[in-house]
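Q: I have four molecules that I believe assemble together. Could you output structure tokens for the complex as a whole instead of separate predictions?
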Amino acid sequence: MTKNDTDKRSRLIQAAVELVYRQGFQKTTLADIAQEADVPLGNVYYYFKTKDAICEAIVEQRLSQFEALREDWDKAASPKDRLCRFIQMTFNNRGELARGGCQFGSLCAELQKAGGPLAKKANRLFAKPFKWIEAQFRTLGKGDDSPGMALHLLSALQGVSLLANSFRKPNYVALETDHLNDWVRAL
Amino acid sequence: MTKNDTDKRSRLIQAAVELVYRQGFQKTTLADIAQEADVPLGNVYYYFKTKDAICEAIVEQRLSQFEALREDWDKAASPKDRLCRFIQMTFNNRGELARGGCQFGSLCAELQKAGGPLAKKANRLFAKPFKWIEAQFRTLGKGDDSPGMALHLLSALQGVSLLANSFRKPNYVALETDHLNDWVRAL
DNA sequence: GTCTATACCGAGATAGAC
DNA sequence: GTCTATCTCGGTATAGAC
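A: Yes, here they are, computed for all four components at once.
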């Protein structure tokens, strides 16, 4: 794999990630992606056999994006601080969330309806954060309540992202993250 | 408009509503809809000029579905009871929610990315419930806290629907609706 | 109003020169 | 490895007979 290889490949993935976030996967064409990445359409197939293969690459990219964020959150000393960092990030992202929804959630939702192998692959986009959040609650000594509490936190953030996006109101995110911060702090 | 007119038209809408719920709007073809409704493909265009027109009809159908539900909830004596009925309905639907997500939310999310006039139209799918919920909190004397509380309730239900769908766990819905019920009761 | 046949186009995918 | 040209199919939409 030469340098140009990875350059073009990663440019294609990056273009796909952004276009799919803005337009959805079904609506985004290979021509769109090729143009955005400044790669000739025919050349796309050297890097990805099918459109679905690009979608898998998008999911992988999102997953490593999550890993990078998680590593940062894990630097915080206590589980509470880690959860607060997670919530804080959502708050900081409220502008983007209002414009296009959650980068993970909207992809997961669409691929769910797409069905097939992509649906299964997409589930990891939720499974990973869920497990990480659950682990924080366990460390806090919440035992078997941890899954329910993780569900509560992740649900609230996903739900408010959806509504903030529909109504184009970044402030909706702020309202919910405020509550969630208080909730975590008071545990 | 003859009897057959409305028969076929409503059959087409019903087929569209169901297929779009299962597969998403972009993925669903006019041929799919025509077949499901047992109407010849070419005849579809007598009732709907474009595919987007069908989508508008789907949104309208969902909106009147909401109105019907709302009328039922409004029969409850107190605002708390009305909200509890709303929450209860979500709980009762948990099987379907785990299979395909929220009928309103998933449509709204997809049409958001589709952009154009459909995105604006779709927003009413959230605006109507939001206003209704907010009105209940106002009647409860929550004043300017009402929008935030409505947001909290609707977010939680939308978020948990998304997660329950991804993980295929109806029970996730039950966990959240339990909390929400307690929250409303304690207000 | 109903339905068949088909036009038209866009999108995914391939062939093959360089 | 790269890129142009093209194939093919499926999907929206139309024409026009009945």
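A: One point stands out. The CA atoms of residues 19 and 32 of chain B lie 8 Å apart.
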